Amino acid sequence: STKEALKVIISGAPASGKGTQCELIAQKFGLVHISAGDLLRAEVSSGTEIGIKAKEFMSAGRLVPDEVVTSMVIARLSREDAKEKGWLLDGYPRSSAQAQGLEKMKIKPDIYIVLDVPDEILINRCVGRRLDPMTGKIYHVKNFPPETEEIKARLVTRPDDTKEKVKSRLEIHKQNAEAISSTYASIMKKIDGNCSKEVVFKEINSMLSQIQNTKAKEMEPV
Ligand code: AP5
């Protein structure tokens, strides 16, 4: 495994823009994007044992039990591509038990990014969000409308994106956020997520480039 590979955790409230930024980050830095939510949604749609256990929690906007999520995420992190190219972990850890679990496995990120967005904007983003089931691309009816009528016709809404469920997801997020960020206090970078996606990415890009340079220098022979 390559030592200079970047290891990134991105966190933030529901709809703070994690998935949107991850698409840009993975593209630029070649990292393996590991989204706990995407992995779970894939398990649900293929009707696996994990999916069956996760489904009702997810559609209610509640957290899936740690023991269901943790082994799935650790397994993905342990695959060769993630070790080689580096990883970008999105939506995990989401509880202090999950954060402690990573620490115990000696899985330590270089940076812990937190996207900061006010509540009323988050609700709007969730209610307007649409997904393309064919490409996995994230859209928004107003902010990022689909490029063609063909894409528009196949877009789907997530069952947990109703106003009521978003409010409860936000509450759950707040209850957990502080406990997790204490684990990563020394590497935490808060970013204003209430800007255009390009502006948010510019900031993330400069932080990650800096870390990458530092790591490359550490690898140079003395
Ligand atoms: P998950 O899929 O992780 O959902 P989430 O954290 O609620 O995050 P979202 O996917 O809602 O938002 P996002 O931050 O990725 O925003 P996005 O880029 O899409 O988890 C879903 C469920 O799975 C959980 O509720 C739980 O049940 C379960 N789960 C997952 N992980 C778990 C774990 N570790 N433990 C237990 N259970 C777990 O953007 C949102 C919208 O805003 C889009 O429409 C987008 O186009 C738009 N947008 C994005 N950026 C901007 C911008 N800069 N300006 C304007 N609009 C923007």
TrEMBL record:
Protein name listed in UniProt: adenylate kinase
Alphabetic keyword roster: ATP-binding, Chloroplast, Kinase, Nucleotide-binding, Plastid, Transferase
Subunit structure: Monomer.
Organism: Cephalotus follicularis
Main location: plastid
GO cellular component, one term: chloroplast
Coiled-coil positions: none
Full protein segment contained here: 75 to 296 of 600
Subcellular location: Plastid, Chloroplast
Family: Belongs to the adenylate kinase family.
GO molecular function: AMP kinase activity; ATP binding
